[in-house]
Specification:
Length: 88
């Protein structure tokens, strides 16, 4: 299950859950760290915010190439620090 599907499942129980760095700029900034995964299957993920749904649709639709995946653990640490400091 991909990150967006996990986020969707989480929000079904915890509707207030927020994502960080699950957006197009973060994805594009890490282009060199993309990996190939299994062919994605589109599923309606109704709890995604518009920017999250946009990236999900682009990934599933192959806009970035076939089977592109970006694992969240590959996000550069300084971007995570910056995003977390903005939440304070």
């Amino acid at each position: 299950m991909g990150s967006f599907a996990i986020l969707d499942r989480l929000r079904r129980t915890f509707a207030h859950a927020q994502s960080i760095l699950m957006n197009r700029p973060t994805l594009l900034e890490h282009r060199g760290q993309w990996v190939k995964g299994d062919a994605p299957t589109y599923r309606p993920l109704r709890t995604l915010a518009p920017d999250e749904a946009d990236v999900y649709g682009s990934l599933v639709g192959g806009d970035f190439g076939p089977n592109v995946r970006f694992e969240q653990e590959r996000v550069r640490f300084h971007l995570l620090e910056d995003a977390l400091s903005e939440l304070r």
